[in-house]
Specification:
The complex is a heterodimer of chains A (145) and B (424). Chain A is mainly β and 145 residues long. Chain A contains 1 helix and 10 strands. Chain B is an all-alpha fold and 424 residues long. The chains are: A mainly beta (145), B mainly alpha (424).
């Protein structure tokens, strides 16, 4: 009995180890989400060509109200990291400008390794504060959409 | 129970042999598609040319590299006339010194870092307190225990010995007449006083000469490239499905490679063709001096931010838009306390002792550290250990035999260092 339990534990451990570098199967990789409290709809646009590992690059963020009208003059705080490795982003990305109505430039993005990354945005605009989280899986040599 | 387990093991071996017969591969060399992708990602073939340094206009200039090579070996730039860059970064020793901590005119507190391939990273020194190769090269020159020199003395030496080469690259030398012989902002009390007594515009002129000297040295350092290792040839054979080529690694080395990219979790940080993520991590390496643990990256971000020789400074050739690493640098992060740069592992087997202050004498001690996973003296170790394992991270568990295999694999990463100008 003890031995069976032990083997089960060992099996579980090896499965967990195998799963260590693999993103969860049910990960939501869509890049258009309503914000946590539903104030906004946020769409993330990565660069057209997938960036290399450790290559600095920029994303665009489209911020709309639920009715689809663009939200101007918003401010963002960017955070994120790798939940499976317990570390944050290797850089501190910033939204540096509003390119067009409701379209913002997020500079200073970099992924230092392949795997599952979270990108978290805290949004501050006239309609109120809200937040949103996106997942992306970076595969060598670049990011999968 | 015992006979059953034996029978299980025999069945496993039989299956393995059957597989080998069917595929023509030995069991050790059967790599999954996912593993092959990882091996390819570690190959030197995948290393892009080093990015141009926008803050150094001469970083790919052969004349600058030629001048830099002479400056690199010139002992006159040290206080005691006997220390050059090459003293600690010796070409016949992987551009390092084999000592636990560097020894210039005095004794340092960290391990001398190798130079080949350094141009690929955004941060320099163990703590990343410099953001370019040229700015890095300036640090030791006026460090009290390395060269121990100062800015006006260095500028005068350049003028006296390298004027024509300097002026061909950087334009006319400023007039240095009447300046104090020994003055600099990081020197002795007398040198700092002399520096402060100089008019601002003359300090600026000397700073520019000093910065340009760093830019020439950086151009030379950029010509030092890591060459192909046995691992690279093996990985190419695996990817190409060339069974004969896979004989390049022994069974033990292949087992070590599997551990490196698998349960050893080494490739988590030692990733990419240089076997480094170019980032900073706290792995609980014990400090050299327990009474004064080294805070590593945590103390470095403010330094590089305020460094007059950084990418955004007056002596940089880069537009602000090109200084993204500095502008978007992580600072004030708790994880940076006690964190040090992930060292690249190419040729590491030839570069004992290990870690940021030479704490471990050999690779066996390094591997034993990751298995033991002690708590950090300062900050928090990122390594999981028994009891702390999350759903996502597991402690590194290796048997003594596995540790030997892993060390054997690390020896396959050695290759030549070549000095070549590349039109990168």
């Amino acid at each position: 009995m003890t031995r069976t339990l032990l083997s089960t534990a060992l099996l579980a451990t090896s499965l967990a180890l195998a799963a260590c570098g693999t993103p969860p199967r049910d990960l939501d990789l869509t890049l258009r989400h309503p914000s946590a409290q539903g104030r906004y709809v946020v769409q993330m646009e990565p660069p057209a060509a997938a960036p290399a590992i450790n290559q600095m690059h920029a994303w665009q963020i489209r911020l709309n109200r639920a009715d689809g009208t663009p939200v101007r003059g918003a401010r963002f705080a960017v955070d994120g990291g790798m939940p499976q490795h317990g570390h944050g982003l290797p850089t501190r990305p910033q939204v540096t400008q509003e390119l067009a109505d409701g379209t913002y430039l997020m500079e200073g993005m970099k992924f230092s390794m392949t795997g599952w990354w979270e990108i978290k945005l805290a949004i501050q605009a006239a309609e109120g504060a809200d937040s949103v989280v996106f997942n992306t899986v970076v595969e060598a040599p670049g990011a999968r959409r | 129970m015992k006979p059953q387990r034996l029978a299980g093991a025999t069945l496993g071996l039989a299956l393995a042999s059957a597989f080998s017969l069917l595929t023509g591969f030995t069991w050790a060399d059967a790599w999954s598609a996912q593993d092959k992708a990882v091996l390819a990602s570690l190959s030197l073939d995948r290393l892009p040319p080093a990015p141009r340094d926008p803050s150094n206009a001469v970083d790919a200039d052969p004349a600058a590299a030629a001048l830099g090579k002479r400056l690199f070996a010139d002992t006159r730039f040290s206080r005691n006339q006997s220390v050059s860059c090459a003293t600690c970064h010796a070409a016949d020793r992987q551009f390092q010194d084999g000592l636990p901590v560097g020894k210039g005119v005095g004794s340092g507190s960290r391990r001398t870092m190798p130079i080949a391939g350094a141009a690929h990273g955004p941060w320099f020194f163990w703590d990343g307190r410099k953001d370019s190769l040229w700015s890095q090269a300036l640090g030791p020159l006026e460090d009290a225990v390395e060269h121990g020199s100062n800015r006006t003395r260095i500028a005068a030496l350049l003028m006296a010995n390298y004027r024509s080469e300097y002026e061909a690259l950087f334009g006319a030398m400023p007039d240095l007449a009447g300046l104090p012989a020994d003055a600099g902002p990081n020197g002795t009390v007398a040198e700092r006083g002399a520096w402060q007594s100089m008019p601002a515009h003359r300090r600026h002129e000397v700073n520019r000469v000093f910065a340009n000297l760093g830019k020439a040295i950086a151009a030379y350092e950029r010509t030092l490239h890591l060459g192909e290792s046995r691992f690279d040839r093996y990985a190419r054979a695996v990817v190409a499905g060339d069974a004969a080529g896979q004989a390049l690694l022994s069974a033990a080395e292949v087992r070590g490679l599997r551990l490196f990219i698998g349960p050893g979790q080494c490739a988590t940080c030692h990733s990419g063709p240089l076997f480094t993520d170019q980032h900073f991590h706290n792995t609980g390496v014990p400090p050299r001096d327990a009474a004064r643990p080294d805070s590593g990256r945590a103390a470095a971000t403010a330094r590089v931010e305020h460094d007059e020789f950084n990418c955004l400074g007056a002596y940089s050739d880069a537009p602000k838009s090109a200084c993204q690493e500095l502008r978007f640098m992580v600072s004030g992060d708790a994880a940076s306390l006690g964190a040090f740069k992930t060292p690249g592992l190419r040729n590491a087997a030839q570069r004992a002792p290990y870690m940021h202050a030479g704490q471990f004498a050999n690779l066996d001690e390094v591997i034993a550290h990751y298995v033991a996973s002690p708590a950090a003296a300062l900050g928090h170790s990122e390594l999981a250990h028994d009891g702390s394992g999350s759903a996502h991270r597991q402690a590194i568990r290796l048997s003594a035999a596995q540790a030997r295999d892993l060390a054997a694999f690390l020896h396959t990463l050695s290759g030549p260092i070549a000095e070549t100008m590349r039109s990168d």
